[in-house]
Amino acid sequence: MTGDGLLVAVDSPVHRIPAQVKLVALFVFVLAVVSTPAAVFWAFGVYAGMLVAAVAVAKVPAPVVSRRLAVETPFIVFALLLPFVATGPQVSVLGLELSQSGVLGAWNVLAKGTLGVIAAILLSATTAPRELLAGLERLRLPATLVAILSFMVRYLSVVSDDLHRMRVARESRGYMGGRVGHLKAVAGGVGALFVRSFERGERVHLAMRSRGYTGRMPLLSVQGASRGQWMHGVAISVVAVVVAVAARMVSS
């Protein structure tokens, strides 16, 4: 198994689904999860089961998903604080007096946030960046936005390499970090990186103009998705919508 950025390069039915189908499926699935009342706990169990099945079909290793879930850490911290800072009726949990609305709010943030992040991880692990851009293009995203995202994907590694070299140069001159007095050096490095990136962007733009660039990037791909691919790709999202509607009917 090899990887290209966030992509987990294996052969699976999920990998073979066109990017635009997966993007629509992700959008609809997240909308269904967000619209589900927090108190309908069984619905979130169904969503989690569907995601686990999708991850298994996509052959994405569980350690990969668990490592990438670290991006959710700030939301977890916020959710854990809610029961202590929210107002309203109190409930005793393990000797602690917690707000009932805060506990439900914490569950709401954790459940919906985790499901959404796992769905996004599944998309990034089964779709190459270029395919994502092509999918957005097929979904009629404005060409300017597609071009901006394309340049961001292409030059993100270049900027990160510049940052790494600057850090090595700074440490080779005795910088150890951790002291307030060194903030000036860090701020200067960030400013230099911004100026360097801006100048590189100007040079790239001039080079493109000299080669006939007129403000519109060439089409990334013209391949579409068949009806069968759409049916297979959005199946989990359709089920999620049915579950969300049933959950709202039960809670009303």
From TrEMBL:
GO terms for biological process: cobalt ion transport. It is a multi-pass membrane protein. It is found in: Cell membrane. The keyword Zinc does not apply. The keyword Transmembrane helix applies. NCBIfam families: ECF_T_CbiQ. PANTHER family: SLL0384 PROTEIN. This is Cobalt/nickel transport system permease protein. It comes from Kribbella rubisoli.
